[in-house]
Amino acid sequence: MRMNLESRVEKLEMGQEALNHAFRDLANVVSATHEVVALILKEQQDTRKELNEFKGEVKAQFRQIDQRFDQQDKRFDKIEEILIQIIGRLPDQPAI
User: Fold this and answer.
1) Residue 89, SS3?
2) Where are the beta strands (DSSP E) in 1-96?
3) Binning pLDDT at 50, 70 and 90, where does residue 94 land?
4) pLDDT over 80 at 10, yes or no
5) 26, 32, 37, 38 alpha-carbon torsion, rounded to 10°
6) Residue 93 reports pLDDT greater than 90
7) How far is CA 21 from CA 25, 43, 57, 59, 96, in A?
8) Distance separating the N- and C-terminal Cα atoms of the chain
9) How far apart are the C-alpha atoms of 76 and 82, rounded to whole Å?
10) Percent of the chain that is helix, strand, coil (3-state, to 5)
């Protein structure tokens, strides 16, 4: 009977050791997963930051383009005014 009891205790201890080993493996997996997720989130934040910076640069470029178009419009308006004045000062000439 004593041998049977020792055998059962030994079996329980082996089972406990297997559970401890499985728990350590699981803890390692969870830790590694946490590190991977943290890395992915950091990369995502960095990418989002870069995209926001790029977006700001693009908006600034669009503002510059809009300003240039506004300047062009003012120049064309001024040219049109000058042409109207020139045409208005031309003497009437008979059509040929």
Assistant:
1) helix
2) none
3) low
4) yes
5) 130
6) no
7) 6, 33, 54, 56, 108
8) 136
9) 10
10) 90, 0, 10
